[in-house]
Write a structure and sequence with these properties.
The protein is about 5% helix and about 35% strand. It has about 400 residues and is mainly β. Among the domains are: about 90 residues, no CATH class; about 60 residues; about 80 residues, no CATH class; about 40 residues, no CATH class.
Length: about 400
């Protein structure tokens, strides 16, 4: 018979042994450590300067000093000296400050990863599809000192990683990576058929509203419904959209330059094959920015059956309006003919009502049709300045 037990290496009492209580007390001290084995800290390579009697310490992989010869051992401080226990494979304990359970695998102490079941349910049932199920008023996921992230991972790009919002166990909204790596928000009116309300394309950096394929930075598609921008407040301010333009790059902006486009509204129509441009309203820089002011012109472009987009009208920063010309030199500059509808003398408005400078084409004046102007009180013929009679 050996003098030590097989598992815990406890010393046996022998026949006619003197001072049996010493051996018994030694066994009790070892048992006091190994039963409900708890370490006061993670593995250490240097013995503490002031060890606590009866406490168990986990010796590290490369110990020094008095612990040097006992890597991975369990060290117990007993009054005036250290007792070292050689762990056996399978011994386990808890590192109390970290609430971490470890086991000796024959070569060192490693964390225990316990798998109790392939399903977990709290206050409800779990199944093969919903392996984690919880029923309650709310769920709290909190940080442990700083950040906290909830991660949903999928196998491949064509799979789904999403959150579904249900009512009566029917899904009415879903958001996440649905069938691609683009972020989507999908909604359903009946819990069965879904429509993409929002999609963000990270590759092309595009945002789509009610479309799966945004064709620009912001692409909104609405069938059979006009776009309404509503503003409700107690001011006289109108609804509006602000366009901002700068040269340079984000963080290093520079001033816009002459002829730079500032904003535009393009009109397109479907010709049976593709969308083609039919009109353009554009604001452009009409001079260098001066003293906090930005000279701006407004351009109107249209397309005809025989010609693509062409500029038809321009209102300059100086207030000159050009029709058929991009360089108007007067308040109204027309490159071409001007026509005014004919008026009879009976239908001419009062000259003082329309004001001086108004022009009219009088169709029934004595001597034949004539161009007339208002001097503020009467209508006069352009030809001889005589009053229309």
């Amino acid at each position: 018979m050996t003098s030590l037990s097989s598992n815990l290496n406890l010393p046996f009492l022998v026949a006619s042994q003197a001072d049996k209580h010493v051996t018994v007390n030694e066994c009790l001290a070892i048992l006091d450590c190994l039963v409900q084995l708890t370490f006061g800290s993670a593995a250490m390579d240097i013995a503490p300067a002031q060890p606590i009697t009866g406490k168990c310490y986990l010796v590290g992989e490369q110990p020094k000093g008095i612990w040097q010869a006992y890597p991975h051992h369990i060290a117990i401080w007993q009054n005036t000296g250290w007792t070292f226990l050689q762990p056996q494979t399978g011994w386990n304990g808890v590192i109390a400050p970290e609430r971490r359970k470890v086991v000796f695998d024959g070569a060192g102490w490693v964390d225990i990863h316990v798998r109790q079941s392939d399903r977990l349910s709290i206050n409800t049932g779990a199944d093969s599809n919903n392996r984690l199920s919880l029923r309650g008023h709310s769920t709290l996921l909190s940080h442990e000192g700083s950040h906290h992230r909830l991660k949903i991972n999928k196998a491949s790009q064509s799979d789904v990683a999403s959150l579904i919002f249900q009512s009566g166990f029917n899904g009415y909204a879903e958001m996440g990576l649905v069938g691609s790596n683009q972020f989507k928000l999908k909604v359903s009116a009946n819990g069965q058929t879904y429509a993409s309300a929002l999609i963000i394309d990270p590759t092309k950096q595009r945002l789509g509203l009610w479309t799966d394929a945004p064709e620009g930075p912001l692409h909104l598609v609405r069938a059979g419904e006009p776009i309404i921008h509503e503003r409700v407040d107690n001011t006289a301010s109108a609804c509006g959209t602000v366009f901002r333009k700068a040269r340079g790059a984000i963080g290093t902006l520079s001033a816009v330059q002459l002829n730079d486009g500032l904003a535009s509204e393009a009109i397109t129509g479907f010709d049976g094959t593709t969308y083609i441009e039919g009109g353009l309203l554009q604001w452009a820089v009409d001079g260098p920015p001066v003293a906090g002011r930005l000279p701006t012109r407004l351009e109107l472009w249209t397309a005809s059956s025989g010609q693509g987009l062409s500029e038809r009208a321009r209102l300059t920063a100086d207030g000159n309006l050009g029709l058929g010309t991009i360089n108007p030199t007067a308040r109204l500059h027309v490159a071409g003919q001007i026509r005014t509808n004919p008026s009879s003398k009976a239908t001419l408005p009062a000259a003082n009502a329309v004001g001086a400078g108004t022009i009219a084409y009088v169709s029934d004046e004595i001597g034949g049709p004539v161009l007339a102007f208002s001097d503020g009180s009467q209508w006069r013929r352009v030809t001889d300045r005589q009053v229309v009679s």
